[in-house]
Known about the structure:
Distance between the termini of chain A: 15 Å
Strand order of the largest sheet of chain A: 5-4-1-6-9-10-12-13
CATH architecture of chain A: 3-Layer(aba) Sandwich
Mean pLDDT of chain A: 89
Number of domains of chain A: 1
CATH class of chain A: Alpha Beta
Radius of gyration of chain A: 19 Å
Largest sheet of chain A: 8 strands, mixed
CATH superfamily of chain A: CoaB-like
Number of helices of chain A: 6
Oligomer: homodimer
CATH topology of chain A: Rossmann fold
Amino acid sequence: AIVAAIEAALRVDTRLPLPGAAPGPLAGRHVLVTSGPTREPIDPARFLSNRSSGKQGHAIAAAAARGGARVTLVSGPVEIADPQGVATRHVETAQQMLAAVEAALPADIFIGAAAVADWRVEPSADKIKKSASGAPPTLALRENPDILARVAQRGAGRPALVVGFAAETRDVLAHAQEKLARKGCDLIVANDVGAGVFGADSNEVHLVTRTGVQSWPRLGKDEVAARLVAYICESLAAGGTP
Amino acid sequence: AIVAAIEAALRVDTRLPLPGAAPGPLAGRHVLVTSGPTREPIDPARFLSNRSSGKQGHAIAAAAARGGARVTLVSGPVEIADPQGVATRHVETAQQMLAAVEAALPADIFIGAAAVADWRVEPSADKIKKSASGAPPTLALRENPDILARVAQRGAGRPALVVGFAAETRDVLAHAQEKLARKGCDLIVANDVGAGVFGADSNEVHLVTRTGVQSWPRLGKDEVAARLVAYICESLAAGGTP
């Protein structure tokens, strides 16, 4: 029944008009999406980052726009183009991403697909030089703000649906369930990034909610995006969290 | 006289045929260029890197090819296309770049334009998780091989001309002179990266040799590349190091 419902929703989705034409299932909704990595400066030249390409997050923003939503995308540094019909804000660090997210709220749906750096480095104003002793420098790491948790744990003005992502290399479902509870979000889209997902055009995800797990086969990232938006529309239509 | 000679060389350069046509001033020479950043993995998702775009190094490889040389380019991860007429090898880490450079030797001219990471991280096979205590992880840095010094200090098979780059944020010339001596190369192309050079299309460089400094005005990176190749051709024609 779930598969049939998703397929029905997808059939509707593929017939959706462009934004501005007839209203889609997300008409009147504001969807806020984060995507890509963040980049944490170490000095004027060096930085800490991660391999997120932004393909999955950007595809979700585009799918939400096709669904009729007003979409704001907050993107870290990526090599891909801004999605059409989406208001895109470009940021570099996790702190900048948090500020852009807070500026874009309120939203009906928050989808945190960005790979936000857990830690930043206390940056040096000048380029760090090799020391005469040959000893490597010490990077003083500091914990970054947790954007997903902050959005999920807002009081008034919390989005009706808060979706997080979990990129794991082992114990994928256990980590995702723990993350769902700890962050207070409604849905975690979990995937195993041990197997060449970064930069790829396909993705194999598990949807983890408080009531269970739904695993999808390996699909194109555009297809994952369309199915996720259909799933979200169903959840909202059912009047509650997934 | 130097300016006139450079201008003369540039006039010749701009009339150069494409590789495979009539021979240019570098015909019969093998030029080995490195370009771009290196990317040092921390775990399957995270890495340490730097802001080098590869534009200057790639432009130099292209200019050397237009000068008639056989050119090998060893490039770190960049967003720009491989130059035409250049054999390009793609690498990620400093250790991979060193291996690709050694595999490409011997060369008549080595131009190390890449921003090779000075340090790598002892990588974790699994994604590093936040600890329960909230304490950030410690990144154990290890010094990377010094590709420029290794090439410059080869005995038999040392390229006739070894050119390094120095991206500095202060004391640019002093750091470049110290680097020239310490690494044993023939020429350092130094620039100040405090002022929006990364990713830009222009560059303001100083050519530092054992005998002096030649400063060029801010020029397009393609123009810097053409002038540098002309300068190298002159040095070789004069039968010695710059």
